[in-house]
# Entry
Amino acid sequence: MFLNTKDCNHPREVTSASMKKYLFRCILCVLMLIRLYVWLIGYSSPAVSLSDNSEQRNVTILLWHWNAEHARAVSQNMCWERFNIPHCKVMMQDALYMKADVVVFNNLELARGRLKLPMELPRPPGQRWAWMSVQSANNNGKLLGEYGGVFNLTVSYRRDADVIIPYGGFIPRESGDPVDDIPIKKTDLVCWVVSHYKDSFRRSQVYKELSAVIPVKVYGRWSNNLLAPNDLLPTISRCYFYLAFENSIAKDYITEKLWINSYQSGAVPVVLGPPVEQYEAVAPPHSFIHVDEFASVKELGEYLQELAGDAKRYGEYMQWKRDWKVQPSINKEWRVCQICLRYPSFPPHKVYTDLEAWVKAT
Ligand SMILES: *[C@@H]1O[C@H](CO)[C@@H](O)[C@H](O)[C@H]1NC(C)=O
# Structure
């Protein structure tokens, strides 16, 4: 950028026409100076933040006593290498405790008694302890009551957690993305895959009532009709509807039964789990049928039968695929790296004084 400051010097003898011209030029000068100033600021701020970034220290995440199965794919730079999340180091060595910004405790390990909280260790200033769980509230073990005042962060599928790690989500489809075909060869009306069956489960009740109205094909350990992992999706894809019944009913607990078994197979999910609004908050529009939307299971059965016989209305439950695509997020590394991603927005101070109450909230 060049500035001709000479133009701004007032001439000694001027006609009123040239006076106007000079005035105009001076205004231009001022405008250009303002632009130069803005440009300098604009230039310096990214430069400053660039150097900030390159000097920004890494956030160190320590996974406390994760078992080998959980830790298999963990490596120090995985968040950058796999998810493009910068400035994040993931460690598993206890010796780095004093350096860790976040220490992550996996509730499954705590609940099974395989891991104890290192309460005897002093906490370095600013270090946060994170409680991580992907289990539903009722499967979080009996120890929760002892964890008051211990944790600073929750890492959970719950939408009110500090770090939200849902089982899946959906994003807009980009123009180049392939659109999944809607499987048209449907041979079964309703399918269900179940391994744990107890009469007392609400889902068992619904299944019993439903199968009295319409045929329900059952797979899985309970019915002694096991599906090999590779057969799961192709089998479900031949069903008009899939019973995505959660094994436990808890706030925001919506699992791969919806995100993978249903959406990826191309069967319309019939869901039983948290209330319908919680599904609406996370699932693509008009993509599922909620059991609670019907006054009775019998009505639900009749509705499913009707839909299967009406290609147009059935197809409406697949319309979302034109605009959205579903992303199941099932891997543990992704979940850990979300902690780094959220790190800058953590509140400066937070303590879960009653973790049990938080977990059991409905
Ligand atoms: C984390 O929790 C501990 C224990 O309650 C507390 O002493 C500490 O101040 C908390 N730290 C932050 C950063 O919130």
